[in-house]
Amino acid sequence: MTAAASTRRLRPVALLMVGLAVGSLASCGDDAASTDSQVSATDSPAAGVDGDRAGSIVVEDATMDLPANPEIGAVHLIIRNDGDQDDRLVGASSPDADHVSVHRSVVDPEGRATMEPADDLRIAAGSEVMFGHGGLHVMIDGLHRELAVGDTITVVLTFEHAGERAVTAEVVEPQS
Q1: 3 in helix, strand or coil?
Q2: Are strands 57-65 and 72-81 parallel, antiparallel or unpaired?
Q3: Residues in Cβ contact with 2 at an 8 Å cutoff, skipping those fewer than 6 apart
Q4: Structural contact between residues 96 and 143, judged by C-beta atoms closer than 8 angstroms
């Protein structure tokens, strides 16, 4: 068998393995609304100082699938900009983890699933940005404790104009 034929035979297996790995890292989300995980600038003690923007950013439906790896997880949520000016998500942190970043799942031209940083993410005025399966997600690395379904973690999202938003994400069954 030639090397090219061998590679063609292994490619579907490799793609399946990569897809499962990305799915386990970025498979969070729940389309049902959750009032427990909805935060607006006026609710947050860390709201930005720009008073006319105080109620413009709303974060809702924050969930994390029960992580397969007890140290790494992904939070999915919805960010809505109800204001009339653009804002930017410029950072993320958590008191429950060592490192937090925003990623986007992508498939490269060769069909490999990867993640790339999504730093300085624009949230257009009047828009909604979904962090969901196979797309944007808040990557949580170095969780400080093992999580179970029903537990919560806190994620702090930092916006250029709206300031910090502390969001509570509930741990749910995978793909629920």
Answers
A1: helix
A2: antiparallel
A3: none
A4: yes
How high is the pLDDT of residue 51? 32
Strand pairing category for 121-123 and 87-93: antiparallel
Average pLDDT estimate for 155-174:
96
175 pLDDT band (50/70/90 cuts)?
A: confident
Q: How many angstroms from the chain centroid is the CA of residue 176?
A: 16
Task: Please give the Cα distance from 91 to 112 (Å, whole number).
Answer: 27
Q: What is the mean pLDDT of residues 97-125?
A: 94
pTM, 2 dp: 0.70
Q: Hey, what are 22's tokens?
A: 């990305």
Query: Any idea what the Cα angle at residue 108 is, between residues 104 and 110, rounded to 5°?
Result: 160
* For range 115-130, the mean pLDDT: 95
Residue 170 structure tokens: 């509930």
Domains annotated on the chain, with CATH: 3-172 (2.60.40.1890)
